[in-house]
Amino acid sequence: MSAAWYVTGTDTGVGKTVATVAMLHALRAQGRRAVGMKPVASGCVRLADGWRNEDALQLQAASAPMPEYAQVNPIALPDATAPQIAAARAGVLVASDAVLGAFRALQAQSDLVLVEGVGGWMAPITDALDQAELARVLGIEDVILIVGLRLGCINHARLSERAIRGDGFRLRGWVASPVDPALEHAEEYFHLLRDAMQSPCLGRLPAFADAGERQAWAANWWFAG
Questions:
Q1: Which listed residue (38, 150, 204, 214) is catalytic?
Q2: Which has the closest alpha carbon to 214: 58, 43, 13, 35?
């Protein structure tokens, strides 16, 4: 059975998908079969072949071998809001067994599965299921934290690190993600983060590059996995 990492963030909109896609390209450049998964995705559009989420489609495209969409994103919710609200509005029951089945199918065809969560670590998935519990259901022990470089990021990163470790998971490290082009002293923030975090920095995404530039950068990333 292949290994798996859970990718979470310091908040929503911090670049989890960008970072996960970059990690998939980096791992593939090392010759590893790596696939992405977004178990629950809100903000989907109805296409000819069903509900589709842009983030999940990016993960699918960056995966090798390329899995079926239903395996990458088994629970697709139309409204672009918190999963609890989106599921209730769509009348969808978010069940962990459906996620587990898709996850096992991805494990069977890969060396490593990167599972992208929703929002930050403490954002619930349902009233009865938080992200720590989902990771336990999937049997995942390792977590990667994506830190959005913006005001407040040091506090958010340290709180997230403490929560992840407090829940009994192994935090492999964190990735710096530039999300605020107007952030002053970005370089100083990055170095302060490295000093403040107990877990290692695994990499730093290039600032506001397009998809092609990110892919080229990822293929040469020092990230060792």
A1: 38
A2: 58
